[in-house]
Amino acid sequence: MSTHTHDHTHGHGHAHGHSHGLVHDSIKRSREGLRAVALALLVLGLAAAAQAVVFVMSGSVALLADLIHNTGDAATAFPLGIAFALRSARAERWAGLAVVFAIFVSACVAGYEAIDRLINPQQVDQLGALAAAGAIGFAGNWVAALIRSRAGRRLDSPALSADGNHARADAYVSLAVIASAAAVALGADVLDPLIGLAITLVILRITWNSWRTVRAGADAAHA
What we know:
Helix content: over 70%
CATH topology: Alpha-lytic protease prodomain-like
CATH class: Mainly Alpha
Order of helices and strands: HHHHHHH
Radius of gyration: 25 Å
Largest sheet: none
Strand content: under 5%
Number of strands: 0
CATH architecture: Up-down Bundle
Number of domains: 1
């Protein structure tokens, strides 16, 4: 009588870690964030190119300041894009701080230009083209602000929301260019720098609100 004890222990513990066509949420978030950043960069790049052409024609210092603002706003796409590509919450928080700093610098530049125009009034030519350039800057920044702000809320990204505030701040600066053209056309040249100072205060308030947004996101991440 033979007893065959077949103790075959088949350890087929295959862990099939396949998503079967599903994309991880972090990857989808990264792609959507990159898409929003790239689209806003394209809009701002086209607006800045149009303004650069008008600046060569008019020689407006106010338009030059707005052009600098728009270029700086577009440049914030790079730290944000890197953060989304890395899918790093920490990098995204640092990008948010970079955006807040860029808004503050925009306020400083706008304030400096306004004070300089009070001290050293300058003649501006091509008022119609100047007003059109301001309108282009406003439209470009406002569209970029909508793209970033909506994506920031959808992706729960304080950095992207702060960048939306940055674009909105530069849209207000572009309005100052239109107001400058109107003031010069009416002969009230002194209103140009005074409007610039008022816009500076608006941007400083947006800086503070953006800082609170980024700080709240950082606190929530550490909670």
